[in-house]
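Consider a concrete sample entry:
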Amino acid sequence: MKKLLMSLVAVVAFATLNAQSVTPKNITGIVKDSLTQQPLPQATVALLEGTRSLANTQSTETGSFTLSTITPGNYTLTISSVGYEKKSMPITVKSDNTTIDLGTIWLITEGKQLSGVTVTAEKALLEDKGDRLIYNAEKDASNAGGTAADVLRKIPALTVDLDGNVQLRGNSNLKVLINGKPSAMMARNLADALRQMPAHLIKSVEVITNPGAKYDAEGAAGVINIITKKGLQGFNGTVTASGGNMNRSLGSRLSLRKKKIGLSLALSGYQYRNIRESEVVRSAFSNGSLVNTLTQNNEADNLGTGGNGELSFDFDPDSTTHLNFSANVWGGDFPSDETSHINLVDHTGQEIQRFRNVKHFSNPYGNGQLDLGYTKSLKKKDQEFSLLTQFSRMPDNYFYTTDRYILEEISYRDKSTNYSRNREYTVQADYTHPFTFNGRKDTTSLKLELGSKAIIRDIGSEFNVEQSLDGHSEMVPDPSQSNQFDYTQRVYSGYTSVRLNNQRKWGLNAGARIEHTEIKGNFVTSSTHINTQYNNLIPSITLSKGIKQQTLKASYTQRITRPLIWYLNPWINQSDPKNIYTGNPALKPEINHAIELGHSINGKKGFSLNTSLYWRSANNAIEYLTRVDATGVSISKPENIAQRKAYGININAAGQPNKNWNLSGGTDVRYVDLNSVALQQRNNGYMWSINTNTSYKLPKEFTIQAYASWYSGWISLQGSNSGSYWYGLSAKHAFWDKKATLTAGVNNPFQRGIWQKNQQSSASFQSESNYFFVNRSYRLTFEYRFGKVSADGGKEGKKIRNDDSGR
């Protein structure tokens, strides 16, 4: 810890010395209409260094503007105003300049150029940025009124099953971030969280399969970064309302930015309905002989309700300094009530048990998070220092009651409470230093990145069970099913990496990250303790070469998955008496090795094709395993199964046959091999997925869209799951001068739902389960945008990124 603090002090001191050598300058000018020659008030003036905004302001009533405290260097000045064409010009600020007066700058009215045609280029629905695949969700009309799970279903390389479980290239051990920072809600239960996040909040989604050293090592399969919509310059806002048979939402976002200060507020409420049925037939064995057979039928129809809000504030005291603060909260309750009819017979077919189990399961959850960040741009271009802090607190509680009936007479009742907490403290420092080398044949640019980070997680859980053995008498506590669990995890890390590019289109990103983890657990009631620590050195390297419109790349990295409280908590969920779930405090971290070879090509009409060959190998792979005892009760908990390997190919393509038509899609085919020597069990096979999406713009501001996806099913150590499909149609109309849109959408209109089959087996059991998910849905979404919107409203505030997105 002392070494970490010393490195932070050194980085801060180095950054301060560099900052003291900068002498600020000013840039002034006047913006006017080229036809009327009248001043243009409230025109947005921004100074860019590359693609990064360093300073911005708005012109006054007389059209004048001033950008203050500018350091020497080469920049681009952009001037924009609603109804006018954006103007850009190069600006060089020298050390002997005090003020640069640009005089009068004339803006041309849109569409008034002589002998010219104005062409507006839009982002493609799918973009390949080399180290990440970007899906621009806001360009997809069919997302209106849906959920985050609906959005992720349309991204190649991802598979989302009918219950919302996500895999990236066949691996579910991934990290999902919100705006580059972790969300405790996403870590708690990803499937539930995605169902409860309205799609209208999402701007884009980034899928990163081989994160570099700057990223946290968490997330064996990779990183998914969900980027939400933000307001632009001036005062503006949106109101969105969506209604349908399966989900509905209401939300609003307000944004105000003037000169150096920005303020935004977003609020949203939502509901999601889940209807399912299932039938399970499971046989238990002992020494190869049949002991009993369980038949169970389940029915569930649940409606979850929740909301979220975020308040953010940022301040630019000068052109090189940025301060940002944000506070956000998530909360709600997603019940999982279920009625089960259970029948157990022995090996001769003689009935042992028959009863009806009624479960009332509640999961009130919440998450509050505070971020405070400081970013300083130093003398050189791309030279930057940032110091970021974060605090989050997440109460995550589980309550259930079960009533057991025999011949409609109650015979047993129990009640369980599990109060859990998760407090997380993080501090992070990053420094980037650029270098430029001028050779005889080309120029090479190099960026050195250094950083350190500390995360402290304070987690606890208190769980109790009360029982009434006859269903009528007073409930009494059961000490054997009650405990108090305290858990602390500390992760200290440091990284260094270099990014090299030259004019011959060679690129290298290489680095290493070291992480030290300390874990302490204490079962207070039973006086049992856990105390362990370990170090991980995580190397990463990506080499690329551009050849005209093509790029070749090769990469290698390691990833780690640490078992968090939701895997470690020994609380026993017995709400279904024949299917019990619990955690495993003895879990070890999962280490994943990843190699990838890639090729991409960008052609005419927005065409792009990306192909990747990949290999994944995980030691101590974590997977839920099930065992069945002689009474027909199954117990499932996460365990280290030894080894998981995957070999595959991923192909993604996108294009625009004409200016109104967009096409995109992809496929992923992989061979998966899972092996556990300890359990003497192995399973392997091929898995595949196909995804396609198309949209077409019609006259009079109408857009139609269609999408479809097919999955072969999943393979686990103990079994497999059958395939599924998902498809949808939508139509959108923009009106009121494009400030309002109305979108009608339908998913899977030709059947009420879909059946899936799951087969599992081990030495102690064989089971076949058939699940029916209601997935036919329809919705109508209205969105209205108001206020004055113009160009970039300032710098993007940096925040803590546990499982850093590296943006």
About this structure: The domain at 2-107 is CATH 2.60.40.10 (Immunoglobulin-like). The helical segments are 2-19, 148-152, 184-188, 190-195, 565-568. The chain has two domains: 2-107, 234-787.
